[in-house]
Amino acid sequence: MNFKLDEKYKNVLKGIPAAPGVYIANAFLYKKEVESVSKEQITDVEQAIKSLDEAIEKSKSELKKIFGLAVDKLGEKRAAIFEAQIMILDDPYLLDTIHSRIRKEKIQPEFIVDDEISKYQKLMIDSNESYMKERSHDIEDIKNRIIRNIRKKKWISKIKNEVVVVTNNITPADTVLFSRVNVKGYVTDTGGLTSHAAIVARSLKLPAVLGVHDASTIINENDELIIDGYHGYVIVNPTHEQRNFYLEKMERLSIYNEELSKLRDLPAETIDGRKIIIRGNLDLSEELILMFENGAEGIGLVRTEQLFDGLNHFPDEEEQYQIYSDLAEKIYPEKVIIRAFDIGGDKVLPLDVKEPNPFLGWRGIRFLLDNTDLFKTQIKAVLRASTHKNIKFMIPMVTSLKEIKTFKEYVAECKTELKTNNISFDENISLGIMVEVPSAVIMASEFAKEVDFFSIGTNDLIQYILAVDRGNEIVNSLYQEFHPAIVRTLFHLIDNAKSGGAKVSICGEMAADPLAVPLLVGLGMDSISVSAASVPTVKKIVRSIKYSDVENLAKQCLKYSSEEQIRTALTQFFEKNVTDNTERIFQTKN
Ligand code: PEP
Ligand code: MG
To answer: Which pTM does this prediction carry?
Structure first.
C-alpha cells in the first residue's frame, strides 16, 4: 500500500500543524455567539451600573477559576495570560470611563463596554506585529465575557462524548475550559502558531490544526474527523483505509511518547559513547518553550527572516537586539546560532521585485551584500546581543570566498563602530556559513579555513544539487535526500570541514527523518538541529545505535550508486537496530 494523504484524497483539509498529536473523534461545531450590542437608551442608570459591576465581578471569578485550572494544567508561567485578563478587568481607568459614560450618555452598558474595550483591541489589530494582532482575540474574549454576563447567559452546554472542536477562532480560555469536557483536539479557520490557543493546546498535549480557512463551513456537526497535529491534516469522514492507518499510528504513538518523555534530561549519546549535540530550529520566539520541554541543547538555527515576519518594515537595530538578546539570555549557557536574513527564494522579497527564478536570484547573502545598511544593522544587533558569549552568527546562500571575506569585513567594521561607542560585545563571536549550494561544497576546504563553522542546509542543498525545486509537487519524487550524490556530498563536506578546522552541523529537514539519523551520525556529523518537536525522536534514535555500526552503514552507503539501494540499507538497519515504534511515526506513507 502506498498511502499518500494529501494528493489522492479529497477529504483531507490542510492547516497549520499548531500542536502535535493524533486523534479520531466526531466534530463539535462551536459557533461562538458574538453578542450584538445596540445604542439603546436606558432609564435606570443605577440599575445598569449595578448589573455592569456584577457582570465584571462574575467575569473575574470565571477568569480566576480558569486561571486556577490553567495553573494546574499549564503551570504558573503560561497561566499568566489569564492573570493579564483579570488585570484588565481591574483597570480603574477603564472601569471609571465605562461608569462615567453610562451616567453621561445613558446608553446600555453592553454598548459602552463594547466600545471602550474595542478601542484597546483596535490598537492591537492595527499593530504591525502578528503577535499583537493575535493577542487582540484575547481582548475580544474579555469583551464577550462581560456582555454575556450582563445578559446573564451561560457558557456552552456540556459535551458528553469525545469531540474535536471545530470553530472559526478559539480563545485560550475556551481551550482550557474545553479541555475539561472531553475535547480531544482543535480545528480552526483562523489563527497561527503564535496564537495562545496554539500554545495552550501544545501544553495540554491536545492536537491542534489551525488556519484551515473554511473548516467550520466544510465540516458538519458530528462528522467523523481524524486530526493529525504533526502534519496539519484534518481528514473528514475518513475512508476505511485512512482510519486503519491512523488507528495503528495512534497505538504506536502512545507507547512512543511515553518512552520519549523519559529522555528529556538524558544525553544524546550512542551506545558506545559518542556524544551528538541536538539543537532546535527556531522560527518563532514561542518555540523556545518547546525547546526546553523537549531537551534541546541550544538553538541550531534562528530563521531571523521568519522571526520578524508580519512587520511591514525591516526591524531596526533596537527591535532586533531585544529579540536576539532575549533568546541568548534564555537559552544560556547553551548556544544559539543566529542566521542573517535569508530573504528571497520562497521567502518573498520585501521590495517590489519580481524575479523569473527567485531560487536562483537575489537571495540570502547576495541580497544582504547589496543592502549594506540593512545588513550592518543586523550585524550590530547580533554583536550587541552577544555579551553572554553564547551567540554564533552565520550567513545563508554562500557561493564564493569573496562573499565570506566581505561578510567578515563588515563584522570587523561593526565591531569597530561599537567599540568607538563603548558598547560591549563578544570579541570572539563564532562566524559561520550555511552550506547549501554546490559551489560551497566544491570549495569546502577553502571555506572551512575562513570560518568557524558550517551548517549544512539540506533543504536547499538537495534542490540545488539535484536541480529539483523544493516546493514543486510535480518533481517531488525526484527530491531525494538519499540520492548517492547527496550522501557523498555530505561525506565530503564533513571531511573537509573537519580537516579545515571548522565545526560542522546540519539544520535541514533531512536531519529530522528517522531513517537519516543513523546515516548522518555514521558520516561523522556531531551536531544536528531539527524542529523542536523532532528533538526527542532524534535523541531516541541516537541513543539506540552504536557509532561503530553506523560508521559501517555510512561506508556501505557511500559505495551505492542508486537511491533505492541506500534507502533499502537504511531501512534494514533501522528495522534491525531501532527496534521500537519510532519508524514511520512522523511519516504519512506506509
Ligand atoms: C536549508 O536550506 O536546509 C535551511 C535550513 O534553510 P531554509 O529551510 O530556511 O532555506
Ligand atoms: Mg536554506
So the answer is: 0.68
